[in-house]
């Protein structure tokens, strides 16, 4: 018998949250795909200045959710916070149509994101009864919306911005956010009242006791901050390099450079289910790989991707040819595979090992890692013009190697502790 209260085998509210998240990420990554090019080509900023601005903005969008969560919990409530945050983000994207409002627009988007980001996904668990078996796959479904929005954004907003004008791209991002808000408001009847269920609690793993996890998580946080310096360069220095150094002729057309930003979420789609299936199979056989070991491999893998890119640049320069676009596909395949070993696993680790009394604060600390790492990525990216591309990308590889070594040492130091053996199987997501 068909369940009248469900769509696609899940509560109707999950579809509403899925579509809202998809359009929010469409707007967010649509603006991000154009941001560095808009600053360097239209506003005529030097790359050093543009890199610092890019890093500061990327840092800000991970700092504001800490305060957005507190504001929603104490005063606004989740749903009003999502609506207000979405309105601010849409306003910010439309403000981008005016060059004089570029900096205020970024501030408005960052504030809106702070209200939106922590409060939409926190409603997913409220859709399910305590023992509903569908709850186990809810976030897998939800996070597909993140990937879908991130995949479509560079293809649509990026193309509009490059071909027809920057403001068309920013305007499309604003329209996407408005569509997400309209769906959220219309579908409010399918979302449970906030007070109808208690807040979901993160179950601790065996061995995660009280404050004993804090030294481990603090060490991981520092390693992740370093890692994000290199990780965030794909939207900054890599984007600048690809614009002038990659042969983008294919199938009788010139590929818009912003399309490369869609490769990462595309490979998240393709690779995440395979990895989760492999990790679950290993766990079923009693050979689960602890989260810290996976994170070590992830940081090392990103370093390998950058080292391979540096090698390709050197080979191309020596042979006198321009790198083809197919090499960028290969770069992002390796890059994304490694990313899935560290970022979603790290987020799950922080959520799982959080001391009971400070669960929300511990997860907020993960966003703080992103804040610091992204800020540093902009500072390091400002040195792009002072060195050659292959040297810069080798530096990124070295930073990842240091991060990987730190994670390895942390795991070795805490290997006798059950918390170091924590196994986290993350949902299919665009890692935050």
Strand and helix map with partners:
Elements: E1 6-7, E2 10-11, H1 12-42, H2 47-76, H3 78-95, H4 102-116, H5 138-164, H6 166-186, H7 214-231, H8 237-245, E3 246-247, E4 249-250, E5 253-254, H9 263-284, H10 291-319, E6 323-324, H11 325-352, H12 359-381, H13 389-413
Parallel strand pairs: 3-6
Antiparallel strand pairs: 1-2, 4-5
Helix pairs in contact: 1-2, 1-3, 1-5, 1-6, 2-3, 2-4, 2-12, 3-4, 3-6, 5-6, 5-9, 7-11, 7-12, 7-13, 9-11, 10-11, 10-13, 11-12
Q: Please state the CA-atom Rg, rounded to the nearest Å.
A: 21 Å
The best one-word shape is: globular
Counted up, domains total 2
Strand content: under 5%
Give the low-confidence spans: 196-208
**Secondary structure: number of strands:** 6
> The CATH topology of the largest domain, please?
Growth Hormone, Chain: A
**H/E element sequence:** EEHHHHHHHHEEEHHEHHH
What is the makeup of the main sheet? 2 strands, antiparallel
CATH architecture of the largest domain: Up-down Bundle
CATH top level of the largest domain is Mainly Alpha
For the largest beta sheet, what order do the strands appear in spatially? 1-2
Question: How many helical elements?
Answer: 13
Please identify the oligomeric state: single chain
Structural class estimated from helices and strands: mainly alpha
What's the name of the CATH homologous superfamily of the largest domain?
MFS general substrate transporter like domains
Describe this structure as you would to a colleague.
The relative contact order is 0.15. A hairpin with a 2-residue loop joins strand 1 and strand 2. The longest helix is centred in the N-terminal third of the chain and has 31 residues, at 12-42. This protein has 13 helices and six strands. With 432 residues, the chain is mainly alpha-helical. It is 69% helix and 3% strand. The strands form three sheets. It has a two-stranded antiparallel ribbon. The chain has a two-stranded parallel ribbon with strand order 3-6. The two termini are 39 Å apart. The protein has two domains: 10-191, MFS general substrate transporter like domains (Growth Hormone, Chain: A, Up-down Bundle), CATH 1.20.1250; 204-425, Growth Hormone, Chain: A (Up-down Bundle), CATH 1.20.1250.
């Amino acid at each position: 018998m068909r369940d009248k209260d469900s769509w696609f085998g899940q509560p109707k509210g999950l579809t509403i949250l899925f579509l809202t998240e998809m359009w929010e990420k469409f707007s967010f990554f649509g603006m991000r795909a154009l941001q560095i090019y808009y600053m360097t080509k239209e506003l005529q900023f030097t790359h050093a200045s543009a890199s610092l601005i890019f890093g500061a903005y990327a840092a800000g969008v991970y700092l504001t959710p800490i305060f957005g969560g507190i504001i929603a919990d104490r005063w606004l409530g989740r749903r009003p916070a999502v609506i207000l945050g979405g309105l601010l983000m849409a306003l910010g994207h439309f403000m981008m149509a005016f060059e004089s409002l570029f900096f205020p627009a970024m501030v408005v988007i960052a504030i809106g994101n702070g209200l939106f980001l922590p409060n939409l996904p926190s409603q997913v668990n409220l859709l399910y009864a305590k023992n509903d078996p569908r709850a186990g796959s809810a976030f897998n479904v939800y996070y597909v919306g993140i990937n879908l929005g991130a995949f479509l954004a560079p293809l649509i907003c990026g193309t509009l911005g490059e071909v027809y004008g920057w403001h068309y791209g920013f305007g499309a991002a604003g329209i996407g956010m408005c569509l997400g808000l309209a769906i959220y408001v219309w579908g409010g009847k399918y979302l449970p009242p906030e007070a109808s269920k208690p807040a979901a609690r993160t179950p601790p793993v065996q061995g995660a006791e009280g404050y004993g996890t804090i030294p481990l998580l603090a060490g991981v946080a520092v390693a992740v901050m370093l890692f994000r310096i290199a990780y965030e360069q794909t939207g900054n220095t890599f984007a600048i390099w690809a614009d002038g150094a990659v042969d983008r002729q294919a199938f009788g057309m010139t590929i818009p450079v912003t399309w490369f930003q869609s490769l990462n979420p595309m490979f998240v789609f393709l690779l995440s289910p395979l990895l989760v299936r492999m990790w679950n199979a290993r766990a079923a056989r009693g050979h689960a790989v602890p989260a810290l070991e996976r994170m070590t491999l992830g940081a090392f893998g990103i370093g390998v991707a950058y080292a391979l890119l540096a090698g390709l640049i050197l080979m191309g320069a020596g042979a006198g040819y321009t790198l083809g676009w197919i090499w960028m596909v290969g770069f992002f395949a390796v890059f994304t595979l490694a990313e899935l070993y560290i970022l979603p696993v790290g987020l799950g680790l922080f959520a799982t090992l959080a001391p009971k009394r400070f669960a929300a604060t511990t997860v907020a600390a993960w966003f703080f890692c992103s804040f610091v790492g992204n800020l540093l990525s902009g500072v390091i990216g400002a040195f792009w013009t002072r060195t050659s591309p292959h040297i810069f990308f080798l530096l990124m590889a070295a930073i990842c190697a240091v991060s990987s070594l730190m994670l390895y040492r942390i795991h070795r130091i805490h290997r006798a502790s059950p918390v170091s053996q924590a196994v986290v199987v993350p949902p299919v997501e665009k890692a935050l």
